[in-house]
């Protein structure tokens, strides 16, 4: 848990260094640090400790990789969390996705990370690789993605699907074509 959250925290610091200087970007999400504490005299010898977050606790994205929920999609924090996910995904060439973004305002905690099954640069996440695929399909860029110059994932997804759709058109069974062409 500590390793995952603190790894995501390091990416968030780099993201902040790139985003904060941009005119109009404003405050960026911060992943708070989490610490492992050894308590040898206790029945449970290890515990995690982090800053207490006071205020309305909000889930900006869910652990299964889906886009932020519809009620939070229009909030500034929600949009910036989605942009952070997109930025990490692009920065790692699609090999890492920070997910389960939640917290109070711009302070986030208890995040998850999805990686391919082989991991990414020796790091294995704690979420399924399917979350990455879901994010690619569901993510909708917003003004913060544009400010950072991130490439649309929809066009990448459509380009990958296009050859499949073209091949489907040549199949003799028209029922199959209707199933595979969106």
From TrEMBL:
Subcellular location(s) of the protein: Basolateral cell membrane
InterPro entries: a-kinase_dom (IPR004166), Kinase-like_dom_sf (IPR011009)
Ranges where the record places region Disordered: 156-182
EC number, as in UniProt: 2.7.11.1
Keyword vocabulary terms for this entry: Cell membrane, Disulfide bond, Immunoglobulin domain, Kinase, Membrane, Repeat, Serine/threonine-protein kinase, Transferase
Disulfide bond recorded as keyword: yes
One of the Pfam families matching this protein, by short name: Alpha_kinase
Catalytic activity: L-seryl-[protein] + ATP = O-phospho-L-seryl-[protein] + ADP + H(+); L-threonyl-[protein] + ATP = O-phospho-L-threonyl-[protein] + ADP + H(+)
Recorded superkingdom: Eukaryota
Residue ranges annotated for the Alpha-type protein kinase domain, each copy included: 1-153
SMART domains, A to Z: Alpha_kinase
PROSITE patterns according to UniProt: ALPHA_KINASE
MF annotations from Gene Ontology: ATP binding; protein serine/threonine kinase activity
GO cellular component: basolateral plasma membrane
Start-end of Polar residues biased regions: 165-182
Family: Belongs to the protein kinase superfamily. Alpha-type protein kinase family. ALPK subfamily.
Function summary: Protein kinase that recognizes phosphorylation sites in which the surrounding peptides have an alpha-helical conformation. Regulates cardiac development and cardiomyocyte differentiation by negatively regulating Wnt/beta-catenin signaling.
Name of the protein in question: Alpha-protein kinase 2
